Amino acid sequence: MPLPIILGIAAAAAGVGGIGLGVNGGVKMKKANDKLKEAKNRNEFNNNQLNTANQSCCVAMDVLGKNELETLASFKEFSLLFEKIHNKPEFAEIKLGDLNIPSFKTEEINKVSVGASVLVGGLGGAALGTAGGFAASGAATSAVMALGTASTGTAISSLYGAALTNATLAALGGGSLAAGGGGVALGTTILGATTLGVGLLVGGVIFSITGSKISGKADEAWKQMLDNEKKIQKICNYLSTLEKTAQKYNNTLSKLRGLYKQYMARFRSIVTKHEIDSKVDWNLLSKKEQMVIENTVLLVGLLYNMCKVKLVKKSSSSNNANAINHAAINKAESEALNAYEKLSVKVSIQIEYFTKWGEQLYLTSRGTRYRMFYDNNKWHIRFDNIPEGLLNNYYYSVRYDGADVRVEKRHHRRLLDEDVHEFNFVDSWHN
Fold this sequence. Notes:
This protein has helices spanning about 5-75, 75-85, 105-120, 130-135, 140-145, 160-170, 195-200, 205-210, 220-275, 285-310, 325-345; strands at about 85, 95, 100, 280, 310-315, 325, 345-350, 360-365, 370, 375, 380-385, 395-400, 405, 420-425. The protein is of the alpha+beta class. The chain folds into 2 domains: about 35-345, no CATH class; about 345-425, Immunoglobulin-like, CATH 2.60.40.10. It has a 4-stranded mixed sheet, with no helix packed on it. Strands 9-8-12-13 form a 4-stranded antiparallel sheet, with no helix packed on it. It starts with a helix and ends with a strand.
């Protein structure tokens, strides 16, 4: 066969081979691009999941943090009233059944209340996670820190607004970067919440995830995405648990704080009644009055202990999320609920009254309407901690479709024995 023909055949064969290689290369490139695109989309989805979990958790922690700071700030009135009591015992350790509450110094409570008031004033317009950062580190510790000195050498208490909250959170994070501490880095995140608080909630691991970039190479990008996905899922689980823990803790704190407000009202009345020249002699108070003050002191100690708990324990590694301080949380909650059970006044009321279908019976006192529940031919209601003065003047009404259809003409009045903590009343309709 002539050489030109042989070369022509060889060239044609080579051309066909080149086309095959080109098509195969194009397929591989498309697969790589698709894989890279999927990795980026999935990574974006995972980060959105993290962002949602973070924001939801921060909201719950912020509610708790604000509640704790407001609780501590409210101790200022207690301190003023308590200082007026002369010849009072040391209250070295107050006991309520099998519950022992460690003592505290009045000046310590006063200092904490001042610091908490300063922080509460700086929460207006604060970024997401700010108040939560205080709860994570212990609101009481944060309140004391607010009276300290920032890493710049400026007294934190001389600052205000965002500068105050940021300086306090930076101090809780370990100081400024210039001083070699965690500082701002511990509280800066690109999750959309530019606050120091988020870093205190989660830890440094959140920055290693949100700050990383997906590789431009498909296989590397896919591996990075899977690694991040595992970390993100772990952090989301942590944030979900922390959110539920914060909500439960806040509910317990709110219950105890409500009881404290009632005892403070009675404490205030005692001081007003016996005050002479800004002093009240403990020895001239009745046993019941002394008991009210002792129980108020006990509630302050319990609330103070709850606000001292650091909900989050910092991780020593930037590769791991922080840990929830379950042991301290459970202990504080248990003591609080134990005291609440012993000190709260529980009242159950029932009334036999026949209503038409769709009608609803209510108990009304001091402008507040309480819905009753129907069971076994009787309407009933239970208060686990009866609001102060609720039974001094109350009445029943029947409502249908949002309007009163029948209202009692004569009101009811019940007097509660202060030595009894549980009551069961049976009423009848007053025409």
